[in-house]
Structures are given as C-alpha cells and as structure tokens.
Amino acid sequence: MRRERLFSEIEGLVAGLRTIRHDLHRHPELGFAEHRTQSVVRAELERLGYRPRPSAETGLIADLHDDRPPLLAFRADLDALPIQEDLPLPYRSIHDGRAHKCGHDGHTTILLGVAAVLARMKDEIPGNIRLLFQPAEEGVRGGGARVMVEEGALVGVKEVYGLHNWPAFPEGEVRVTAGPIMAAIHRFDIVLRGKGGHGSQPQLCRDPIVAGAQLVTALQTLVSRELSHQGGAVVSVGSFQAGTTDNIIPETARLKGTIRSFEPEITARILERFRAVCRGVAEAMGVQADVDLHAGYPVLVNDPGCAQAVREVAERVVGPGRVGGAGLPIAASEDFAYFSAAVPGAYFFLGAGQPGEETPMCHHPNFDFNDRLIPLGMEMFLGLVADRLPALQARGDGP
Ligand code: NI
Hints:
Elements: H1 3-11, H2 14-26, H3 35-47, E1 53-55, E2 59-63, E3 70-77, H4 104-120, E4 128-134, H5 144-150, E5 159-170, E6 174-175, E7 179-182, E8 184-193, E9 197-198, H6 208-219, H7 221-226, E10 233-242, E11 248-249, E12 252-261, H8 264-285, E13 288-295, E14 300-302, H9 304-317, E15 323-324, H10 336-342, E16 345-353, H11 373-394
Parallel strand pairs: 3-4, 3-5, 5-16, 6-15
Antiparallel strand pairs: 1-2, 2-4, 6-16, 7-14, 8-12, 8-13, 9-11, 10-12
The structure holds nickel (II) ion.
The site of nickel (II) ion (NI) has 5 residues, from loops.
C-alpha cells in the first residue's frame, strides 16, 4: 500500500462527497433518531462493497475485511442539534428546529470518503479496518458511543481514532495532545426551598432568591479558591429561575449548571466542595437545598502513542509548523471518551477558522461545516492507515 496512491484517490472523490454532505445537511436528525442518515450511509457503504450492520439502534459498523479481526477503527458521529438554521444555504435544513450545527454531517462524509478509498485499495490492504458510524454524540438522549462499546464495537480493535472540525483553530491546522483533550462533565440541578410570602414581610419568609444569589457567588470560589493557579475546572450556572412578580417572595428557586474538569483528583475535589458549599449556603440562609448532581461524559484521554501517530501524519499532511497542542484541552465534552477508554486511541481537531474574520463556532446558528476539510480529514485517517496498520501487523496483532 503506497502512501501517494492513497492520497491520489482522494481528489476524484471530493465533488461526490460534497454532494453527500449537503444531502445530510438538508436532512438533520437528532440522536438515536438518525434513521434516514443511517439508510443513506448504509446504501453508500453497500454500493462500495461493504456489508454494514446496525449498532446502537441508528449507528452502523462496517469492516473492510469481514473475515479478519479488526486492527484499526475510525469513528464518525451522525447526529444533528435541536437548533434552528438561519443560514440561506442552498442545502438548508428542511426541518424546523433541527440542524447540523456541529459539522457531524462533515465527519460522516469524511468517513464515507475513507470507506471509498479503502474499498478501491482493498486488495492492497491486508488488515481489517473498522468504520464506526456513531449515533447520538450530542447526548440529547444519552450518548451512542457507550452503547456501541457495550455492544462490542471495539472487540479486537487495537487502536481507534476520531476527529472534529473546530472553527476556533485556523483552517489548515491540526491540533492534538497526549492525555486529557476534552473534559469530564457533571450537570447540576439545585432546588432551594424556602418559605414564600408577601414581599413586604421578609421577616416571615425564608427567601430562596437571596439564597440562590449567594449560592451563585459562592460557587465561583470552587475554581478560584479551591484549585491552584493552574486551575483545571469550569463551573457555570446556566439557569436561575425563581418568582413570578415584584411583591411576592417565592417558595423555591432553581439553579442549573455545568461542571467541567480534566483530572480525577480535581473532579473529586470540586464535586466534594460543590456539595459542601450548597449545604453551607443553604444552612446559612435558612433554606433547604435539594442537589441533583449527575455525571455526563467522562474525560476524553488520548493515548500518548496514538496522539504521536496523529502528530506524525499531520506533519506530513499540513506541515510541521501547523501541528500542535495549543488551545488544548478543551472544556467541551465528547463521548469518543468511551472509545478511547476501551482501547488506545486518539481524538484530534481540524482547524476550520477563516483568517481575518470570526468563523461561527460549533453549535452557533450560523455555523456550517467547511467542505475543504473533507479531503484533509480523509488524508488524516488514510495517513493513519498507512502508518499504523503496518506497525500493528509488525507487532503481530493481525494478518
Ligand atoms: Ni460535535
């Protein structure tokens, strides 16, 4: 399998792939409801000679060689977001309140492009490569990656790789780092129960609004006073709801928010102090705090060897000056974490930012996937095939 050949195949596929990307964009579907997306991907894989099988309800797994154990796996996410599309695109979302605003339409297209190149070169590629089309990354109804891992998607796989477009990094750059690269997430939902009454008679009430205001402020000290100068966590209150009008002290106030962290010790420390601060502020203010704290996706940890493999491929593809770990880790979370917790793996970012302008970020209503990343993403994954497959075979991990 020659590297030049891999890359020469890409150019002829790009126009067709762009058409697929725009079709996926027009028909966005939310997590575990990617029925049309699944059938489009399945049809394309079957056209290429694969025999894809469903996984995690609306996901798919396709093996280059069905009869051999998988060595390398690549993952794309399929789902869109519950957000309105405002852009006047020719391929604008046909669904009100649903749109591909994270670029998963592009990630899926990149992996279909990889599937096409691998299919053409199947006879020259002795090892089995597994393609994972994962539903429900956005976690609207829980994540798809954990389900795929539980269903055995990685059994036998030696290394797994995934990517994400990222408008905050300049187009043409690849960002990767060893160790934690995306955060663990905890969501909290706090109900403060006081005693309501007339706004003119606070002495007869226990005011949950004042307690809530104190709690919002006190929670800011979790990062600023509990952690060292290096920090390592984010605590944000995203919702504070209480009361109905000007002259009533309400019975309850409700605060919701998110905690992001990267290291187990810091996570444990923040969560312990979070509970203590909620208890303490509630007690001081004479209200009751019902604290619901639950874990979302775990921290996404890159294997050092796999991260180095990504770096080496990227240095060839975009040049050594355009590869690095600046800006990482990112405090967003990502359920690729379940894949890279199960087997060694690495997740990396393709910059998508335009020079001299602020490119709309993922999840922004004006975001759209940058189609120039399609060949770049393919080169990255195919470069990993070229580098890692011979290395894994030389290690005796496969045929
Ligand atoms: Ni995303």
